[in-house]
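### Sample
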Amino acid sequence: MNSSSEIQNQKLTSQLDLDLDFEFDQPSGKLRLRDLLDISPTLTEASGAIIDDSFTRCFKSNPPETWNWNVYLFPLWCLGVVIRYLFLFPARVLILTIGWIIFLSSYIPVHFLLKGHDKLRKKFERYLVELICSFFVASWTGVVKYHGPRPSRRPKQVFVANHTSMIDFIILEQMTAFAVIMQKHPGWVGLLQSTILESVGCIWFNRTEVKDREILTKKLRDHVQGAENNPLLIFPEGTCVNNNYTVMFKKGGAFELDCTVCPIAIKYNKIFVDAFWNSRKQSFTKHLLRLMTSWAVVCDVWYLEPQNIKPGETAIEFAERVRDIISVRAGLKKVPWDGLLKYSRPSPKHRELKQQSFSESMLRRLEEK
């Protein structure tokens, strides 16, 4: 902040201190600091966010505390590195390679030879997608505990889950062949999206194209009406969050389809590896390599009680109620931020102007009193 802004902030602070001192003698004559902060809930949340910077914390990986830099533990840590990189990693690569060989040798004939038998072809493709996802989980030595009844294929229902990494989809897919809503990706991930994953009804979008939103909404409505379609899975946060927080759920999609919403809570145990994927700093290939060179990926998945919109409840209120349920079950902290700000955060100059404007408006209010 420039010097003029600092001077204004100092004047504001001094004026508030004087008012607080004056309040002891004239309790009803001046504006109190408590009253100032109670102007609106938005102001209170913004003040707390400036201090705590909760938005930035949602998208940061918290490095583990250093424990190995002493003469007793360092040799054991070195031994662990040797085991993870020279023994576990090659074994996991072998497992994943075998999985791909089995998958492709089965998927290609099924996809092309059973084109006239759509129902049978979809059944086999669904099973094969679940199989390759199981091989992926095995390549991380995944220890996943599922709680609650396994999802079933029914019309007019949609599943929503908190989002930490693209592996959320893989972990859920190995149990049930979901049709997921996902951002388009480049590279080999994009190739899988446009070929194999489309066979289970997955729907892709590009958040930079406005026209995609209308097309996407129509596809979602058509999908949930089909009794034979795979269950629809949506990550309403719209971006990966570090599994300590939940950002605002988008009301579009799941909460405006006039159907039952089935919450899913996912919580990773960071004792062996942090499963958060920061797509702005790391490619998905590097993310997978980090998981494959860790000891294990440990997580819990809860299939929670289905929810319907209540009479008089708006889509935004419905989304917040479902977010409450997921946050409580997974032990996550709610923050009042839109996750898309991760991709379009305001510039430092814009934030400085807003802070200066805020200071000036507060000074004017004090002068009026």
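Residues 246 and 334 are 5 Å apart (CA to CA). This sample (Phospholipid/glycerol acyltransferase domain-containing protein) is used throughout the tutorial notebook.
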